[in-house]
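Data card: per-record layout.
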Amino acid sequence: MKEFLYSRNAVYETLRARRRDVFEIQIAEGVQEKGKIAQILNLAKARKVKVTRAPRGRLDKIHENHQGVVAEVSKYPYSDVIEILERARQRNEAPFVLLLDSLQDPQNFGTLLRTAEAVGAHGIVIPLARTVEVTPAAVNASSGASEHLLIAQANLSQAMDTLKGEDVWMVGLDQAGVKMEAGSRHLRGALGLVVGSEGEGLRELTRKKCDIVLQLPMRGEIASLNAAVAGSVALYLAYLARNA
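The structure for this 244-residue chain is written out next.
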């Protein structure tokens, strides 16, 4: 199956990652061949990808925020938990995995993917059903970071058991958890950070599978942060703790 990716960063990173087949790239008429567009064209030439000029209205029908470029590509190549663990071994690092429990919003998903890639997470695990997937909207929201990540679709409970079998410490993130401390020992070493859905947080079964559930300390008036912000903050705290 094929799909259309849109926006300059999404198309550029997809070409650079070389994990998908790219069948054709359409550039809107009138778009200048400089900056990111020039980089896209150079990568397309190197990969012998067909490039055509198209009326802007044709690209508008695919997505209104196309930024002058659209790519027809193969579906996202999902990974698995074993491959994520293997990536950690190849890097000679303790596993660092983000698990998302029924996240729904592509923008939140994309934000978390971008942060996870930035801090060097070895992979992401999402449930098999009732969750956001790696759609073009999520790729765009991640600025193409999705294309460099190993993302596994799996039974979340079974995935957590597999990771725990490899001595990966499961840390849930929830406002009902224990208050997180700076440099928390729970964020060091082999880590699976589990982030719940936007509205309900962690499901009860997921919570029970966690070794500990932590909450971000807050001093302001608002009650909580959304899933993408809280997860991103926790990812960076884990990155700092792991590299202290």
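Known properties of this structure: The chain is about 35% helix and 25% strand. The longest helix spans residues 227-242.

See the next section for split statistics.
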